[in-house]
Design goal:
By secondary structure, the protein is mainly alpha-helical. It is built from eight helices and four strands. The longest helix has 26 residues, at about 130-155.
Length: about 180
């Protein structure tokens, strides 16, 4: 809501029009929460040639908004950090870390709804919408997200170069 920020979030249909939403896509890979590496590699194969288009869309939005800063909040981008650095060399990242229990519960409920809306797509992959089973899978995925940011931070030197800010969700929501 900051006056200088053009915020256009959850743009999975722009980032990945061939793979989003997963249940209705060609599904050449499992969902990201099953295999983030395969999902991300498939995404890059389809996206590498669209870098200019994506930058133009984001730039046009920022221009229309008349804001000096563009922000995009897309959780799937956690596994795209090296590609985002290539596409947006001046990009900075804010990693919001929320209590894993809250994340897993929320994500499990949302994922169950998706799975029940498109049961065949998930059944074809042998994926169960059983709450406990799904919660364990999504807890592992949450941990993979945390580890991925840490790994990319170390590999790319994001924190030392002031390109990564990590903040807890709880601290972000505090009334100051």
């Amino acid at each position: 809501r900051h006056a200088d920020i053009a915020n256009w979030s959850e743009l999975n249909d722009i980032w990945d029009p061939q793979g989003y939403p997963w249940p209705t896509s060609a599904r050449t890979t499992p969902p990201i929460w099953i295999d983030p590496a395969a999902f991300t590699e498939r995404w890059w194969r389809h996206t590498a040639g669209r870098q200019r288009e994506i930058r133009a869309l984001f730039g046009a939005f920022q221009s229309v908004q008349g804001k000096p800063v563009f922000v995009n909040e897309t959780p799937l981008n956690t596994f795209r950090i090296p590609y985002l650095v290539e596409m947006f060399p001046a990009a900075r990242f804010v990693h919001v870390v929320r209590d894993g229990r809250a994340v897993v519960h929320s994500y499990t409920v949302k994922q169950q709804i998706k799975m029940r809306e498109f049961p065949q797509a998930y059944a074809e992959r042998g994926l169960s919408d059983d709450f406990e089973t799904l919660a364990v899978q999504l807890a592992c995925f949450w941990k993979q997200n945390i580890d991925e940011v840490d790994r990319r931070d170390q590999e790319l030197g994001l924190t030392p170069s002031a390109r990564l800010l990590e903040v807890t969700y709880e601290a972000l929501c505090e009334d100051r």
